[in-house]
Amino acid sequence: MHLSHLSLSDFRSYAEVELPLQAGITALIGPNGQGKTNLIEAIGYLATLGSHRVAGDAPLVRSGADRAVVRGALTRDARSVLIEVEINPGKANRARINKSPVPKPREVLGLVRSVLFAPEDLALVKGDPSERRRFLDELLVARSPRLAAVRADYDRVLKQRNALLKTAGLARRSGGADLRTLDVWDSHLATAGADLLAARVELVEVLRPLVEKAYTQVARGDVPIGLDYVCSLGPDVSLQPDREVLSAAMLDALSRVRSDELDRGITLVGPHRDEVTLKINDLPARGYASHGESWSLALALRLGGYDLLCADGGEPILILDDVFAELDVDRRERLAQLVRPAEQVLITAAVPDDVPEVLAGARVDVMGGVVRHVR
């Protein structure tokens, strides 16, 4: 699978841009601030319907414009499909497949699959638990697009339950709370939460050996690492991908913390409070790992995800956004050797020397929002 053409309208700094692409390796070269990352951010948006740089859609629309459009022509097994997403901040986004509208934008998920390496990936190791949860959920959706609906259902129920907790908490303090409605939302949250939790638990189990292998390849050392899912439902909960068991455990946990939840007005247990722990040599990577070890572990997480998607069938697009400048010489060369066989690799770099020689291929210069093929 590879992207054969990218077209942008009013996306970030680009009023209009047309970028032909090809299988193999393409390097986007230009000084910082010229629009390289905007291009690969757009590709990532087609794959995930989100940005790796910002949480909302508004910054993606060029200043002065009402909307942005991202189009990508994807080639797979000699067949081509055109995916188009219209970004409308404050309104519903729209999507088309081969120029035909689809009911919901998330129906395009799974058509473009990409794995992105970026400087922001260091947050997978050093950042908050939300960064690691997001990593898992994006990989889940890439493998099984139907899980986008599961995530959306859970987020919707969580938001409504939190609003009810605030209202019920105020009513309880005034002596007039009726908690029967909260019981109903507990059931909804447990059902959606069990689906998401089961998928995450299963994913961590299949991902762990791939991440361990990738870390050894990147760091070139037999150092034990750990990747474990820590559930907020309590230490006695058996983490198995059994939705009925997990739903019952979540209902039980919600009943135990209800009084605290009413006092605080927020949901205290569930997948939104879970953690993914990363260890190196049995020590928490966050706080103990060196800069090089943290980078190696972050890269291993992405490479593990890439290998998992390949095993599912169909290679994702590999995107390396200004990564090589962050690595020492040894890690640069090892990473370059690992990604070189991919069907399509897109690299951004400030100068040509930041791209390892083994990744020589097509080159596109990006300067002041203008893209120009060099060879």
Alpha-carbon distance between the termini?
22 Å
Largest sheet: 6 strands, antiparallel
Overall geometry: globular
Mean pLDDT: 92
Which CATH architecture of the domain at 1-113 and 314-375 would you pick? 3-Layer(aba) Sandwich
- Helix fraction by DSSP (H/I, runs of at least 4): 40-55%
Strand proportion, as a percent range, falls in 15-25%
Category by helix and strand content: alpha/beta
Element order: H for helix, E for strand: EEEHEEEEEHHHHEHEEHHEHEEE
Structural account:
- It is a single chain.
- Strands 2-1-4-5-6-7 form a 6-stranded antiparallel beta sheet, with helices on one face. Strands 8-12-13-3-14-15 form a 6-stranded mixed beta sheet, sandwiched between helices.
- The chain has a domain at 1-113 and 314-375: Rossmann fold (3-Layer(aba) Sandwich), CATH 3.40.50.300.
- The chain has helices at residues 36-48, 123-126, 129-143, 147-173, 180-219, 243-264, 285-288, 291-312, 329-339, and strands spanning 2-11, 14-20, 24-29, 68-76, 79-87, 94-97, 100-101, 114-117, 225-230, 275-280, 283-284, 317-321, 344-349, 362-367, 370-373.
- The protein is α/β, with parallel strands linked by helices.
- It starts with a strand and ends with a strand.
- The longest helix is centred in the middle third of the chain and has 40 residues, at 180-219.
- The mean pLDDT is 92.
- Helix 4 (147-173) packs across helix 5, helix 4 (147-173) packs parallel to helix 6 and helix 5 packs across helix 6.
